[in-house]
Amino acid sequence: MKIYSHENQKLHKPKGYYSRGKMRQPQEMPERLVELLKAPEVMGLKVTDAKEIGIDPILAIHDFGYVDFLKHGYDEWTALGEEMGEEVQTSIYASTNNAGLGILAKAAQYQADGSAPIGKYSWTSIYWSAQTALNAADALLKEEIPQNDIQICLTRPAGHHARKSSAGGFCYLNNAAIIAQHLRQKFQKIAIIDTDMHHGQGIQEIFYDRKDVLYTSVHGSPINFYPVVAGHEHEKGQGEGYGYNINYPMPHGTDEKGFFSYVDKALENVTLFNPDVVVHVLGFDVYKDDPQAKCYVSTQGFMALAKKMKALNKPIIVLVEGGYCIEKLSENLQAFLSGFISE
């Protein structure tokens, strides 16, 4: 098992986010990564510093104008010389009929909701989050690790809500999509299984008309719950991708047994697809005490989840994404890692 991270991911420090009618305290904070890094340290496991793979795999998924906004938007924002606030944060949402003339128009075009502000150092963290994920994909492409090895990427900020040309849900670059596309240079079929509390509408949108990348997601029902407009069971893909997008929205309040009943169905889909590589989007926000949780997974449940993933007997890249009960992140990650290590 190989674990990747990078210190630059701690530089993104949101001041707050707007959701459900009011400003809220930020939950996606640098302290999350600090706590996650404690787990391998306690277990005596090495964490590899991610190396730079480059911008090209990012631009293979995301629009150039959007990536340019993420990289330069803060400078444009502050260059206005007005009282604009400390972060790029829009209250106008207009992704269409928008010429993108001026930073306010660009923010309206490229920020899908109020939960993805951009500060002075945000791009550095966003970029290195993607690079951290790409290190695992690159290792498989270059055959630097055993074929059926497990790779864990401690990635922050997360990615599965990021769409081709918009940020939202604490996400900016869609790491799962970026590495799936990168892996397609060598591997024919990639399966993405998403067990975060929220549906990854960005992944769904990017691969919705493709059959070479299976996307299956277990998440809380999106009715009155983020991302609200996607993640329903009837969304199955389109064109040649029909049937290769499979959603399992859980009723809010689902217990651990119910959670795993949906996970088992998703794993059956993955097994039938018989991918060359599995990408697992892992969210610790399904933990019973997480402020975002709508189900009740215990700490030991994460060990069971890892054992189920391991049983696929495929090369697996795990992207650690959601999870906002900061005081339990290390303990929950230790349980998850133990599930891969135990016989």
From TrEMBL:
Domain of life: Bacteria
Compositionally biased intervals (Basic and acidic residues): 1-10
Positions of the Histone deacetylase domain: 31-338
Cross-referenced InterPro entries: HDACs, His_deacetylse_dom, His_deacetylse_dom_sf, Ureohydrolase_dom_sf
Region (Disordered): 1-25
Cofactor field: Zn(2+)
UniProt entry keywords in alphabetical sequence: Hydrolase, Metal-binding, Zinc
Membrane-traversing stretches: none
Pfam families on file: Hist_deacetyl (PF00850)
PANTHER family: HISTONE DEACETYLASE 8 (PTHR10625:SF17), HISTONE DEACETYLASE HDAC1-RELATED (PTHR10625)
Family to which this protein belongs: Belongs to the histone deacetylase family.
Protein name in the entry: Histone deacetylase family protein
Source organism: Marinomonas maritima
